[in-house]
């Protein structure tokens, strides 16, 4: 069997790297089937206690689970429930950018204050999207001492959103708007926000540098072989 030369292998690798630029995910409105598979272990609230971020979803039957944040306190969903949702990019919508900012705080929380940051962020997005329930079930269930932290987080998120409506800070965070398909009599599932692709696609600049570098190395090896 004829062996491939090093320059041939490098050339093919470079071509594949550059070709992959065409497979980068395009963020446009997308309809998909979402299924709630499980939740995180953290619960919060007075009575009854409720789960906070993350809620783990399967998209279009995939076995990969994606963590999302619920942003509607009003409706209730159950493990195993699925429906069709429209995935909408956050950029260009102040309300969505604010929700993304808050979700990002929870998703990137770390250190000894991690659980508190996640819980406050979750309640902040609930209060933000369901303000009419702050005088009903939501406020009655809100843990003591959270409101001051929530107000501060909402103010911070609003300032960011107003100044960054067309933000590129959250290119992989989307809003999931329920469309149809939930069980009869079950109301409308909550809206969710989060990154549908936890492992972001490589940036075009990185792929170009990789492909160009491999092509350059292949060319050097080829010249050496020719003049040997």
Biggest beta-sheet profile:
6 strands, antiparallel, barrel
In N-to-C order, the SSE pattern is: HEEEEEEHHHHEEH
Distance between the termini: 24 Å
* Share of residues in helices: 25-40%
Q: Which band does the percent of strand residues land in?
A: 15-25%
Mean pLDDT: 80
**Which parts are unreliable, with pLDDT below 50 for 5 consecutive residues or more?**
6-28, 200-209
Radius of gyration: 23 Å
Number of domains: 1
Strand order, largest beta sheet: 1-4-5-8-7-6
> Which descriptor suits the 3D outline?
globular
Q: What structural category characterises the helix and strand content?
A: alpha+beta
**Number of H/I helices:** 6
Describe this structure as you would to a colleague.
With 228 residues, this protein is α+β, with helices and mostly antiparallel strands. Helix content is 40%, strand content 18%. The chain has one domain. The protein has helices at residues 6-19, 94-107, 114-129, 137-141, 146-163, 204-227; strands at residues 30-39, 43-44, 50-51, 55-59, 66-70, 82-89, 174-180, 192-194. The chain has a six-stranded antiparallel β-barrel. The protein is globular, with a radius of gyration of 23 Å.
């Amino acid at each position: 069997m004829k062996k491939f030369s090093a320059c041939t292998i490098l050339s093919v690798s470079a071509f594949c790297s550059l070709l992959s630029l065409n497979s980068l995910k395009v963020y446009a409105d997308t309809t998909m089937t979402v299924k709630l598979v499980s939740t995180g272990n953290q619960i919060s609230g007075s009575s009854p206690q409720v789960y906070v971020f993350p809620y783990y979803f399967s998209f279009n039957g995939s076995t990969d689970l994606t963590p999302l944040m619920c942003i509607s306190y009003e409706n209730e969903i159950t493990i195993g429930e699925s429906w069709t949702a429209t995935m909408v990019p956050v950029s260009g919508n102040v309300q969505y950018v604010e929700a993304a900012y808050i979700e990002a705080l929870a998703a990137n929380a770390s250190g000894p204050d991690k659980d508190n940051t996640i819980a406050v962020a979750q309640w902040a997005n609930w209060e933000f999207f369901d303000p009419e329930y702050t005088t009903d079930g939501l406020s009655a269930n809100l843990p003591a001492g959270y409101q001051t932290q929530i107000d501060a987080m909402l103010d911070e998120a609003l300032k960011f959103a107003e100044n960054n409506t067309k933000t590129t800070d959250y290119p992989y965070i989307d809003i999931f708007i329920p469309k149809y398909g939930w069980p009869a009599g079950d109301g409308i599932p909550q809206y969710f926000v989060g990154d549908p692709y936890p492992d972001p696609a490589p940036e075009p600049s990185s792929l170009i540098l990789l492909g160009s570098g491999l092509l350059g190395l292949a060319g050097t090896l080829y010249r050496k072989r020719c003049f040997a």
